[in-house]
Specification:
Tetracycline Repressor, domain 2, DNA-binding, mainly alpha, homodimer
DNA sequence: CCCCGGAAACGTACGCTGTAAGGTTTTTGC
DNA sequence: GCAAAAACCTTACAGCGTACGTTTCCGGGG
């Protein structure tokens, strides 16, 4: 079957599912040839009968995740009510996002890949189709795809997401920071006041994601 | 000097500039302890007197690049004419982008870092200050910062930037692709027709960057 | 029945990485 | 001029990806 690259003939996707679960539990750095081979009960070099190398393994990892996004989207959109291109894209991005939240390592891994996974083309194809149906020209659709950035894959850069260790900023350091970055600290104070109560949620994630999303549409 | 982390006392930033030039010429994968130490005429282990480890070296790399962005921005904005917050941000993002174009490895490296470089705070502080002056509330400013995504650092995900090796797609493959991804191929055909002449520029970069930018503002 | 040919897994080995431990040289302050 | 401290070097180890040679397994023709 020379036309298309059939993923793995025999124990093939067992490798990938094993690798995904390793990445989920121990981080992507733990995805090593020996570690994966041990997980499927095999010696390291045997992997080379199913994969050309480490890079292909990582490519397979992101491909697996993106395929999960694709299938999840098709599940969500099973009930075929047409609700307009904006709501459709919105729901699609949010679906992608929930998948990515299950595999925190995926965004950074995708960012490091040099080639984009073939399954990602399917996503972009679907997005573009929706845009065209919505009356977009090809040109505008093209620009729109660019504008979405990494949203089709369900993530945006964390900004100060984890607040970087934030181990008890010790008032003097905080004061120094307030002096050096007055607006940022004022903003933080203001935002924390608004979000008092729901810890962990003051900056990150879903609200901001949806805001940016609605802004773009 | 326990309060602030002075970068490197003696040969300190020589390490970083050497590392940057290595990354520029040979790729970020070539930035290894031994390679960098050899570049400054020293043995590998000596680096540990100036850096706690490899991660710190990479952190220093991104910090160097971001600082370059900061200084470049301040140079550009030297002539103090106030041209409104939108034009200011626009020019700032484009400045960041030109710096990043000189160090193609920087975006992916930044994406992989767990902590954001301290110098990046300076950039966000400046952005927020401009927004506040422009009449934004802290809350809206906060959302705006999120919406900018990675633009303050001068990059967006490449989408199909290098078209992935694109080695002579051999008509049959192209036909298969056209069948599987009809809208995408139609769009490509349409866009290529528009941009006939300026090769390499049909998809990537500056135009799209500016479009997204203007859309957000 | 045996045998054997090819695929799949194994084992060994090499060069590379980051870095822990400890010895040696150079610089510096009194 | 001489100790103390900083900078440097040497050695060593575990782990990585992977090239290469050997072994094991299994199905079809003599």
């Amino acid at each position: 079957m020379p036309t298309s690259a059939k993923r793995e003939p025999l124990t093939g996707d067992r490798l990938l599912t094993a690798a995904v679960s390793i990445a989920d539990t121990e981080g992507v750095a733990a995805v090593t040839m020996r570690r994966v081979s041990a997980a499927v009960g095999v010696e390291a070099m045997s992997l080379y009968h199913h994969l050309p190398g480490k890079e292909a393994l990582l490519d397979g990892l992101v491909d697996t995740v993106v395929m999960e996004v694709v299938s999840q989207i098709s599940i969500v959109e099973e009930s075929g009510a047409d609700l307009g291109w904006q709501a459709t894209l919105r729901r699609r991005f949010l679906t992608a996002r929930t998948v990515m939240l299950c595999h925190p390592w995926a965004p950074v891994l995708i960012a490091t890949r040099t080639s984009i996974p073939p399954s990602a083309f399917a996503i972009y194809e679907g997005l573009l189709a929706t845009l065209i149906e919505g009356g977009f020209s090809y040109h505008l659709g093209h620009r729109a795809l660019h504008s979405f950035g990494s949203m089709p894959l369900g993530f945006v850069r964390g900004l100060f997401s984890p607040t970087a260790g934030d181990d008890d900023p010790s008032e003097e350091d905080f004061a120094a920071m307030a002096e050096a970055l007055p607006h940022l600290t004022s903003m933080m104070a203001s935002e924390i006041q608004i979000h008092q109560g729901d810890t962990l949620g003051w900056c990150d994630s879903r609200d901001e994601f949806e805001f940016t999303l609605d802004l773009l549409l």
